[in-house]
C-alpha cells in the first residue's frame, strides 16, 4: 500500500532526552509535589538537629533529598544512557509512513503498522513531534527530519486527520 506521507529520520540520545524533558515539564503534579516538599524538608532538617536528635527525622530528610536527586537532569540523562544500552533499537534510523490503516514504522530491527486507535495525541514542541500512545510512551519525530516547514505542516495535518 502506498503511503499518504512519509518521512525518514535518525533518532539520537538527545531526541530521547527531549521526550524525557517534555514529559518532566508537562507533569504539573511533580512540580506541585516538589514545591510542597521544600518547607517539609526544611522543617525536618531543622528539627533533626535540635536536641534531642531524632533519627527518624534524619532518615526521612535523607529519603526526600534522595528523591530530589533522582529528579535532576543528570540522573535522567544517566537513566537514558542505561536504557539505550539495554534497548539499542530506541535510537537509529526510522521511517514513518502515514497509511490509511495506521502509521507504518520501519527501522533496522523490523517494521510494522501501528493502528490509528493506538495513538492518543500528537504534541508539538519547537524541535520535535511526539506521537503519544500512552501517558509516558511516544514515538519521537524530530523536526529536523523535514525538508521544509510546508512538508512538516502537511505531515502533521495528515497525521491528525487520520488519528481522529
Brief account:
The chain is of the alpha+beta class. It has helices at 13-26, 28-48, 55-70, 73-86, 149-163; strands spanning 5-11, 92-98, 102-107, 110-115, 121-124, 128-132, 138-142. The strands form 2 sheets. Strands 1-2-3-4 form a 4-stranded antiparallel beta sheet. A 3-stranded antiparallel beta sheet has the order 5-6-7, covered by helices on one side.
Assembly state (oligomeric): single chain
Extended strand count: 7
C-alpha geometry: elongated
Estimated radius of gyration: 21 Å
Give the N-terminus to C-terminus distance in angstroms.
Answer: 21 Å
Run of helices and strands: EHHHHEEEEEEH
Mean of all residue-level pLDDT scores: 80
Helix/sheet category: alpha+beta
Q: Helix amount, in percent? A: 40-55%
Number of helices: 5
What do you see in this structure?
Helix 2 (28-48) runs antiparallel to helix 3 (55-70). The longest helix is centred in the first third of the chain and has 21 residues, at 28-48. This protein has 164 residues and is an alpha+beta fold. The chain contains five helices and seven strands. 49% of the residues lie in helices and 24% in strands. The chain has a four-stranded antiparallel β-sheet with strand order 1-2-3-4.
Amino acid at each position: 500500500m502506498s503511503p499518504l506521507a512519509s518521512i525518514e529520520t535518525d533518532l539520537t540520545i538527545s531526541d530521547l532526552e527531549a521526550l524525557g524533558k517534555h514529559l518532566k515539564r508537562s507533569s504539573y503534579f511533580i512540580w506541585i509535589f516538589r514545591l510542597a516538599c521544600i518547607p517539609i524538608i526544611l522543617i525536618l532538617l531543622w528539627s533533626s538537629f535540635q536536641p534531642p536528635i531524632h533519627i527518624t527525622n534524619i532518615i526521612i530528610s535523607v529519603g526526600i533529598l534522595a528523591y530530589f536527586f533522582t529528579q535532576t537532569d543528570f540522573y535522567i540523562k544517566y537513566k537514558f544512557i542505561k536504557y539505550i544500552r539495554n534497548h539499542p533499537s530506541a535510537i537509529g534510523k526510522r521511517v514513518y509512513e502515514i497509511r490509511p490503516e495506521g502509521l507504518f514504522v520501519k527501522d533496522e530491527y523490523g517494521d510494522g503498522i501501528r493502528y490509528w486507535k493506538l495513538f492518543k495525541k500528537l504534541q508539538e514542541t519547537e524541535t520535535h513531534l511526539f506521537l503519544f500512545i500512552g501517558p509516558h510512551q511516544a514515538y519521537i519525530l524530530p523536526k529536523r527530519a523535514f525538508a521544509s516547514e510546508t512538508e512538516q505542516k502537511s505531515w502533521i495535518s495528515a497525521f491528525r486527520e487520520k488519528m481522529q
